[in-house]
Hints:
This protein has helices at 15-22, 33-46, 57-62, 86-89, 92-102, 124-130, 274-279; strands spanning 24-26, 107-116, 135-137, 150-158, 171-177, 188-191, 205-209, 212-216, 222-230, 237-241, 246-248, 257-265. With 310 residues, it is of the alpha+beta class. The site of 2-oxoglutaric acid (AKG) has 11 residues, from strand 2, strand 4, strand 11 and strand 12.
Amino acid sequence: MQAQNTPSMGQRHGIVDDFIARGHHQFDRGVDPLEAARLLTKTRQLRTFDKDLFLTEAEFDANPQYVGVNPAPGRNLLERFGPDLAFVEQDHDIVSAMTELLGDGYEILLKKLICGVPASIVPAWLKARIAGNPVNNLGAYVRPQLRDITYFYGIDFHQDLIDYKDREADFVTLYVYLHDVGLHDAPLFLLEGSQSFGGTLFPHDLTHNGQGWDYSDGRGSMVHTPQKLLTGKAGFAAVWHACTLHGTQPDAADNERLSLRYLFARKPGAAAAIDQVNATLRGPLSLDATRKDLDARGAAVIKANKVNQA
Ligand SMILES: O=C(O)CCC(=O)C(=O)O
């Protein structure tokens, strides 16, 4: 999908410098908090976030499905909200920053709602099964007709390249909080400067050290990456490189955390400032294998989780 807006290009955001130095950029003003609240209300009118989201254990075991359980065209709650998303997609700061980084005609590769599922609604049988898994995307356990949102109960530090085997890191992720997100609402943890190794295999080699993590690339290099906690008010907006490590802990609050997640990509074949960023990386821009934590069906075979120790 082509981005709709034609921005004025006078303004510079420092997004390119931020990406080179830290692998992410935070928007000072964020997006309109009233529009974020309106979208939140509409979402909650359409969906109740409670135990009924989930299959029973017997239903799940009768036919476990681990793939194709995320929003997809035709099954994406955001498709109901077209013009209601203008507060993000047409926001002047976002459009001009994305244009600065990705060039004219940048595209929306993906957009979806993400729910950080609160511990209070996850069934006990499911908690027992997924304990210690690095990726707790609960889509496999959610009723099929409700898989129009992605449901997370935490996810270990990862790169968004993980979902794009063989694709160059020519896209970025924008996260928008629809309500205030504090320490107990599963805020994003992000490792500053971690993009510098380019693509590396998940799960990543990380050792907690002081206020951050020592990150090894598996190719003989190590870097210290300060940990940044993305807490903020409704309308908070931040964007990061496809190789920047980030993750979440399980939502410890009573309420779900609802966010928008966009992937923006440069127009295929177009030169853009993301190339300057990528030229500073000391590793590959794409991977032919992005993860080694799953078996052939997509079930977790590695039990390990670093972000939960943060
Ligand atoms: O929202 C979350 O809990 C994690 C989302 C995330 O890291 C991602 O979608 O890449």
